[in-house]
Design goal:
2 domains; 3-stranded antiparallel β-sheet; globular
């Protein structure tokens, strides 16, 4: 049977859209994913959507409920802490390799990513609340840039998946720590330019621990 390129492309686009809607909270935790509604919302066939649901189930974004269908995976404070610990483990490992191997092009990419993030953080600090997805997208780009020279695509891919789980929690809990987080990002940039991996790992731990503590204080997760 010939491979249907158009069908494959549609499946990938549908996957990206559904996954993004889960990460950014447009599909809420615990929401029942009814096939008839998904067909209407995403314009894909039932077979394509089942393929997408199975893929998202394997990644932990969706839960299969036997013959009843699929639900968006629930959230909990305990799971957020597990995801955060895994993110810290992967990112600190990647930082050490990236800081050791990064060249001037890498430095430029890190500085450019921070410039965009810093500009968005200033807007958030000024009270803008309508650009949350853009802000978190720049946040992701900056942290990806920090580890971009680690030399392992497997590590980068695994980290990206874990970061998206972490990002989902930030979006569900609407976590913005304001100036503290912005200052930590600036310190991480300075560490990268100095190639001080030990200091960067310590700041990253503070950065993630601060997010966990802030989320726990908000009391928005079960």
């Amino acid at each position: 049977m010939a491979f249907d390129l158009q069908s494959g492309t549609l499946a990938d686009k549908t996957y990206d859209k559904v996954r993004g809607d889960i990460i950014f909270g447009r599909l809420a935790p615990g929401k029942r994913l009814r096939m008839d509604r998904l067909v209407q919302d995403y314009g894909a066939s039932v077979s394509t959507l089942r393929e997408v649901m199975n893929r998202l189930t394997s990644e932990g974004f969706v839960v299969a409920e036997g013959q009843r269908g699929f639900d968006v995976a629930p959230v909990s404070m305990a799971n957020f802490e597990e995801v955060a610990a895994l993110r810290l483990l992967l990112e600190t490992h990647a930082i050490r390799d990236s800081f050791a191997a990064g060249d001037v092009e890498w430095e430029g990419a890190v500085a450019a990513a921070h410039h965009k993030l810093e500009a968005m953080e200033r807007r958030m600090l000024a009270g803008e609340t309508q650009a949350t997805e853009t802000w978190k997208g720049y946040d992701r780009e900056f942290h990806q840039a920090l580890i971009g020279a680690c030399g392992s695509q497997t590590l980068l891919d695994l980290y990206g998946d874990v970061y998206d789980q972490y990002l989902r929690y930030q979006m569900v809990a609407v976590v913005f720590r304001g100036l503290a987080a912005a200052d930590e990002h600036k310190k991480l940039l300075d560490c990268a330019l100095r190639r001080d991996a030990a200091a960067a790992c310590a700041i990253l731990r503070e950065h993630i621990d601060g997010c966990i503590a802030h989320t726990r204080k908000l009391g928005v997760l079960p």
